[in-house]
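ENTRY TYPE: paired fold submission
RECORD: A
CONTENT: sequence, then structure tokens
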Amino acid sequence: MSAIDLLAAEIVEPARDIKLNLQSVLGAGGSLTAEQRWGVAIACAVAARNVRLQVALIADARNEVGPAVVEDAVAAAAIMGMNNVYYRFRHHIEKPSYADRPARLRMNRLVKPAASKVDFELYALAASAVIGCDWCMRSHERVVVEGGLTEEQVHDAIRIAATINGAAIALEVA
């Protein structure tokens, strides 16, 4: 039994749909590659701040993808944790005086990921969906579509993001 299956078994009955959705969205056969599927799931678990979910997903991912995917997923979530706060503030305040200022925040991994640039952007998009930054979601969605991914792939990534976020919540229920 996989680490995520063992963890999903702990999800309480009222959240049974989340358990079933985990099996569905993490299984092969969708529009995403294994690297995309696992990278999105890990980035979202990190963004949702559920360590047990992170550990289980990383353990299972290592059976299917290389360490660069795991590293990029963690990096994408961490950078989005920073950027989502910064850009959401600028978006909500809507003052040109803030928008005209440079961020001056390091985000080199965005331009030099360990694996695929488009996949890294997909991980960033999914993490931004979990964290809730409209500006970042629009920006990363545009980049991944311009990079060759389809709207179906984006949709599948966001389904994973939603399910991982739901699992993070369900796993906190006593």
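RECORD: B
CONTENT: sequence, then structure tokens
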Amino acid sequence: MVESAGRLAAVVMASGFSRRMGRNKLLLPVGDGTVVGHVLDQVDRMGYRPVVVVSQYDEVLALARERGFYAVMNPTAVEGKSSSIRLGTAALEALAPEAGAAGIAFFMGDQVLLTDTLLTELNEAFLQSRTGVVFPTYDGMPGSPGIFPWDMRGRLLALTGEDGGMKAAKEQPDRIIYVAAEPGWQGMDIDTEEAYALVRERLGVAQ
């Protein structure tokens, strides 16, 4: 087990509708499991605690419970990304109302190419700062997972619609820390059949 996360909590956002894919991408097979299962296993291996998984899908929540994570149903997924951020943040507040965590890492449920090395770099960058907001950059473009200090949860709870964590971070731009991801293709998510095929190729999975 890698366990580089220190006192970092994690929220896995797995409530999307997979409209471009046309089928639930989170449950597509990769390796010996599923797309979202791959993400959950990596989060577990890295040592984030506690871990909250937010989803509108019973199958995804069951996978979360199997790993000892906190499963939160998202009845307002149609609102957009912010609904998962708010539900995950609120769940962490309820789990640790006093001490909290040093920070919260927000993961997308379909980013299966992230390396443990990159996550370690992100975690270390945050833990060295404790007050910064850390994002990886993929070929110069910021992306997920973002790590937020515990004191920014109020801003996260105020997000609406399709707003993501970057909107909250840009309200205090001097706190943003970027970490370049090498190689840049680690940031790929699975939005189309073509992307799914490429991701499987990158993982070395037979077509």
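NOTES ON RECORD B: Residues 8-202 form a domain with the Spore Coat Polysaccharide Biosynthesis Protein SpsA; Chain A fold (CATH 3.90.550.10). The chain has one domain: 8-202.
STATUS: closed
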